[in-house]
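@channel sequence for tomorrow's demo:
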Amino acid sequence: MAWYDSAVFYHIYPLGMLGAPKENSYGPVEHRLRGLFPWIGHIKEIGCNAIYIGPLFESVGHGYETTDYRKLDSRLGDNQDLKEFVAECHKQGMHVIFDGVFNHTGRDFFAFKDIRENRENSRYRDWYCNVNFWGNNSYNDGFSYDNWGGYDLLVKLNQRNPEVKAYISDVIRFWVKEFDVDGIRLDAADVLDFDFMHMLRNVANEVKPEFWLMGEVIHGEYSRWANEGTLHSVTNYHLHKALYSGCNDKNFFEIAHTVKRLYGMGGNSPDGLKLYNFVDNHDVERIYSKLANKDNFFPVHIMLYTLPGIPSIYYGSEFGIEGRKFRGGSDDEIRPCLHLEDFADAVKENPRTRLIAALGRIRREYPALSYGDYKEEALTTTQYVYSRRLNDTTIIVTVSNQEEDAWVKAWNLPDGEYAGALFGERITVSGGELNVQLKGNSGEIWIPAEYNKEEAAFDLAGMEKKAKEERAAKEAADKAAREAAEKAGREAMRRAAEAAAGAAQRNPDEKNGEFTDAADHHASDGAGELNMAELLETLDLMTIPGDELIALMGNRSDYGQMSVKELQLTILSKMAKNGPLNGQMRRSVEENTHRDSLMNWVKSFR
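structure tokens (generated this afternoon):
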């Protein structure tokens, strides 16, 4: 049994979490990574014992276009910062794995720069796949090459080249020696060369006992990648999709059949495939945004922590934050900057955080959830019962995604008294029959009473009372905010119309009320009269309703002439066309005051 068999991961995308600039100027080092040190205690408090962090190393933008594999990205800090971060994690009992981006490099990587400078005479021309000096690329280099995903920014390494293999092997050895890292998550593992992965496994066996290799694989037969010769584990995208869509569609059959297929892929043994389970990550939308009924956060995470595999929480999702992708492909909303002080006392006050902390504790206390056999016990479209058995201990999991309370039944279970690890109710299984009532969109983990080591995580009656109070308070706050926003929007539109009318009087050829034209006039003729640019600067990003934003900015395209505030308002107007705006979306725009970044953002919309 290795450390990763009983791991609960916390996934960090550091460039986003720490608010690093979107583009790397290769300027002075900014020690942002030190901002993660307070998070280590929080991560431990919610029951995680391992951290997956990355990408970390010097790159141009989002981190996956590596410039230097041996240097922490200067937007995050220096190598000493990373060394101390890993050491502190180890001190607090947590393992750490890095993102390993070995399928491709960025264009500023030394080997590719040499090809650009020396072309056919470069000694590194065979470090990359299909370099063709008779072709061209989107950067007009005068040669072509294979890339990842159609992006010429990501230049595909030739993983069959012995020099490339030796170089990457030395990088891994360096990471272990310099930072004492415990494993690697391999980016784009589903397109890595299999011989290359065999080489990586040999290096893993060499550098450190129980050094873990986990690969990003989207589709396919996972056992092709996760086996004794290549990787230890892969990302479980099959279960990821089943968990949220099974709840949204009220179709637990999708979840149970996915689990059955994956469990069979591993030989129907808990030791067969230890897949990396998740409900969201840095590439997909937040689970709290994907759920049609937010209350299903509860059963989804119970399943995440109790089904076969290794559970992972993506930073911030333990608080129930939202995050969607929008047309144009921007990942900014799912990779936000977070400040721990904004979530003070979340484990006590936020029921979602409290659930995650409880599940982390339960997972740690009961090895059957990590090592036990899995068996489906009962299944309907909205109810799912399964067990995890290890030696003489059977743990029973019951979940429901019905809105109303429901009775859940199963048969042929071990007789005895069981205690609910979450809510504390005690039940008796007699004659093999389980018959329990679950609250709507809820679940429970039933532990044999003699093994139940902890008090219940939730006071059910108190929780229901608090939930009602929270809903009432939220409705009142939403109503007040809506009324204030409507008032502010009406006032903004009135002032905008007046400014446009004034501009039209000074420019009779312009159409009265068209904000695109009126905004081009920067002179103010009358005392106290605002022109359009000045008017827009007065608007509060947090209060203007989406339809008002669309009316104000929706047709503007003169991005090069816009101020920072105008760019922000235009981005929000384009977001509003794609769906409702929430506070987090508005804050992410409001906090971005870099004009170049805003220009790229607004141009990304289609």
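heads up for whoever presents: The CA atoms of residues 116 and 141 lie 7 Å apart.
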